[in-house]
Amino acid sequence: MAPSRSSRNSLQSVDLRALDYLASPSANLLCPICHSPLITPVQTRCLHTFCSACISLSLERSLTCPVDRKDLSHDDVTPAPIMIANLVNDLVVLCPNREKGCEASCARWLVESHVREDCGYAMVKCAKEGCDGMVARKDVDEDCVHEAVECEFCEFAVRKLDLESHLRECPKLSSECPHCAEPFLNPELSIHIADCPAEIIDCPASHFGCPYTCPRSEVDNHTGSCHFIALTPILQLHTERITTLELENKTIRQKLELLIPPRPLPTPSSSSSNPQDSSTNTGSSSTTRDMTSEMQDYTYHLYSEYEQLRSDVERLNAQIRELDVKQDMARINEGLRYNDEMTGMRAAINGLRMQLHWLVASRRDAPTPNSGGAGGAANRVGAGSSTNDGRRMSDSARQIVKL
Amino acid sequence: MAAVKRIGRELAEFEKSPLPHISAGPATDTDLFKWNVVLTAPESSPYAGGIFTLRLDIPNEYPFKAPTLSFTTKIYHPNVSNDDKGSMCLGILRSENWKPSCKIAQVLEMAAGLLKEPNVDDAVETGIAEEYKNNYEQFAKTAREWTRKYAK
Question: Which stretches are tagged as biased composition: Low complexity (chain A) (predicted)?
């Protein structure tokens, strides 16, 4: 027998981390991170030992030692002494195919070659030429299980490997119903199970609380006497009513939430006009839903009105401010004009005073010996022109000057 | 996944050599990352007689990230937040203190140790810590009361 050795090699790889150890290893040989015996041990600058893969993962997250939290970089990690590596590699492990039946155990460093070359339960390529299937090494010299064979009952072609599972559901074979233990052909079984008379079922009114259970065939006897079933139409009606009421309650609550928090300001004044509408409306339609939508519309209406009024007030305010400014400007202008006029008047008065001075001075000069004559002349002039306003003014101005 | 293997190993170890006053294990068979823990309080503490349940959540990045521990039983304790989370403030669980070499068994042991002796210098409930320091009698009274109320 000369199939090449490589065709008998298993492609299965061994996950060293998943191995089970024959004896529990010394705690000193455990990696502090994964808590399993060290795999490819490495040592840090602070002399702690880890699996190579574990410390790399740890350094990716934090550049500190996972044991003493001292600073650590990738460069501070070196392979551990060979003695440590030998110690962990010599630990005896169980074959990873133990669950399939292999009872072998060997040193850890040998386990890979055991699985690759010796383990009878490792999967290897099927020996038959042209077959791509995999088979346990111990069965490799038997007939190829990937060949199609004919089922002896249904004449259907199935792989030898799948024959066992096929026989469980072969359409020509029968299986027992789990309830009545009667044999049925596989395709009919599921139909039968759906209404097997022996199946234990709940009372049809179980959702209303009937605790009774019995085989399907006897359920009719029970339904005749079951109080729950007698009450079912009423209970059904009540459930429906409760659900509709709950729904209604929910919508009403939503509306209420909409209405209550904002408390619109103008309600009392304007509600005097509209509620009549709404009350007549509710009276006619009489459904609460209509009323709430009416209320909602009404609230919105109030809101918009309120907004409109506010904008009106704002507009008016602006106008008033504008007018104010205009008025101020006009007043200032007027004041300036009056000022000008006043200075003009003052200048005129000054001119008059100057003239008066001159007149007085010249009169005083003319009749030098008669000092009282000036007064007498002035009196005469004043008496003579008493109807003239202008003269009177100048008259009083002269008295001031005299004083 | 490295985390699953390590947790499995720790669980096996824990079952082989259980710690006094502590029982722990995954809440469901399918999820190794959520543990239920039950602590029985030591006789010498004001929590004596109480049975406290805790939840241990292990992150996927374990052991590179610390697990979190929270009380599901209400407890009057300076190091346990007095809210519905009940999170326990444990020094070694802080991200800056956590080391991948720490084991779940060590964490649980520390938690049990805190029941015996609270760490008032590292408290989440500072009010309770003050009371513990200045008015131990009052603290012990409330702790006993809460234990009787919630942890029986």
Answer: 268-288
Q: State ipTM.
A: 0.74
| CATH level 2 (architecture), domain A6-141 | 2-Layer Sandwich (3.30)
Residue indicated by tokens 């649980």: B108
Contacts of B101 in chain A (CB under 8 A): 32-33, 66-67
pLDDT at A296: 80
> What are the residue numbers of the active site of B?
89
Collect all residues of chain B within an 8 Å Cβ-Cβ radius of residue A62: 64
Q: Which residues of B fall within a CB distance of 8 Å from A69?
A: 99
Q: How many CA atoms lie within 13 A of B19 on its CB side?
A: 25
Sign of CA dihedral B25, B26, B28, B30: negative
- Start-end ranges of CATH 3.30.40.10 in chain A? 6-141
Nearest to A21 by CA among A81, A100, A111: A111
What are B21-49's pLDDT values in tens digits? 898 889 888 888 999 999 888 888 888 88
Average pLDDT on A238-267 reads: 80
Listed ranges A17-21, A209-213, A336-340, B3-7; the one with the highest mean pLDDT? A336-340
Specify the number of domains making up chain B: 1
pTM for this one? 0.50
| Cβ of residue B15 closer than 8 Å to a chain A Cβ | no
Tokens 């072998």 sit at which residue? A104
Looking at domain A157-219, does it have CATH number 1.10.10?
Answer: no
Tell me how far CA of residue B27 lies from CA of A137, A360, B9, B38, B59, in angstroms.
Answer: 41, 128, 17, 11, 15
Q: Looking at residue B40, which CATH number applies to its domain?
A: 3.10.110.10
Q: What share of chain A is helix, strand, coil (3-state, %, to 5)?
A: 60, 10, 30
Is the pLDDT at A275 greater than 60? The verdict is no
Q: Average pLDDT of B97-116?
A: 89
Q: Residue A385 — very low, low, confident or very high, per pLDDT cuts 50/70/90?
A: very low
Distance CA A29, CA A322 (A): 92
The overall longest dimension of chain A from CA atoms, in Å, is 180
Domain that holds residue B60: 2-150
- Separation between Cα atoms, residue A287 and residue A193, nearest integer Å: 50
CB of A64 closer than 8 Å to CB of B100: no
| Averaged confidence pLDDT in chain A | 79
pLDDT in tens, A178-210: 888 788 887 788 888 888 888 888 888 888 888
pLDDT surpasses 90 at A394: no
Under 8 Å CB-to-CB from B125, ≥6 apart: which residues?
B77, B78, B79, B80, B81, B82
Cβ within 8 Å of A, B 53-92: 61, 63-64
Do A21 and A37 meet the contact criterion of CB atoms below 8 Å apart? Answer: yes
